[in-house]
Specification:
The structure is a single chain. By secondary structure, the protein is an alpha/beta fold. It has ten helices and eight strands. An eight-stranded parallel barrel has the order 1-2-3-4-5-6-7-8, surrounded by six helices. Helix 1 runs parallel beside helix 2, helix 5 crosses helix 7 and helix 8 packs across helix 9. Bound molecules: 2-phosphoglycolic acid. 2-phosphoglycolic acid binds next to strand 8. The site of 2-phosphoglycolic acid (PGA) has 14 residues, from strand 8.
Length: 245
């Protein structure tokens, strides 16, 4: 089982270090039987890498985005090679906030997925339908279209261990309504039938609903936002999910 978090635009380097120190204490007392991953903001990646290594913690480290080009005149951007050098082994791509706020299209995301996999990093591809697609009964069609476009031309080893995170847009964030396992089961099954990849669920996951997504939603893990902004929160979700197995 794979359980992780993106901190989005939260945590300074100092609070990132404190987070990993606390996580190390929690894991030492009772090691969770799952793979954990953390996606800090760019500025904290190296801090988290150093802290994980200092504690001997085997936790995957990811970036929240990168550019498709390897280098060049792209002000404000970072490349896959740069986040790899900083210590990442995976890169989150296509989150709905980036699609919505930074106008990322399926084509842009596909180019990033290719660049990340070619750099030897695992793409963590986010897909999800919005409320109107869901209401129109087009959730599966929308999500499959997003995933097919983003993964176009990549198969087998070229996918480099890609992971799909199914995150319905209407379930994400403070304005979201958590999905139920019943809401997600059909989409998760369709993704798994179409792609030989692990599928995570994300969107208002917390320590009260995590178990149900694992037992009844058919997912291979969870991608957590707000509830994992503290190490105790992340471990609360992980323990709840693990208890369900
Ligand atoms: P949330 O975020 O858990 O705060 O809803 C989830 C996500 O955006 O992945």
């Amino acid at each position: 089982m794979l359980i992780g978090t993106s901190w989005k635009m939260n945590h300074t380097r100092a609070s990132a270090k404190a987070y990993v120190d606390r996580l190390a204490a929690l894991c030492r007392d009772d090691p969770p039987n799952c793979t954990l991953f953390l996606c800090p903001p760019f500025t904290a990646i190296e801090t988290v890498r150093t802290a994980l290594d200092a504690h001997g913690l085997d936790i995957l480290l990811g970036a929240q985005n990168c550019h498709a080009a390897s280098e060049g005149a792209f002000t404000g951007e970072v490349s896959a090679a740069m986040v790899k050098e900083a210590g990442c082994t995976l890169v989150e791509l296509g989150h709905s906030e980036r699609r919505r706020d930074f106008c990322e299209t399926d084509g842009v995301i596909a180019a990033k997925v290719k660049a990340v996999a070619a750099e030897g990093l695992r793409p963590l591809l986010c897909v999800g339908e919005d409320r109107s697609d869901r209401t129109a009964g087009a959730a599966i069609e929308t999500v499959l279209r997003q995933a097919k476009r983003a993964l176009h031309g990549l198969e087998g080893p070229a996918l480099n261990g890609a992971i799909i995170a199914y995150e319905p847009v209407w379930a994400i964030g403070v304005d979201g309504t958590a999905a139920t396992p019943n809401d997600i089961g059909g989409v998760v099954a369709a993704l798994k039938a179409a792609f030989p990849l692990p599928v995570l669920y994300g969107g208002s996951v917390d320590d009260t609903n995590a178990a149900a997504f694992i037992t009844d939603g058919g997912v291979d893990g969870l991608f957590v936002g707000r509830a994992a902004l503290t190490a105790d929160g992340l471990m609360g979700v992980a323990r709840n999910a693990l208890a369900a197995r």
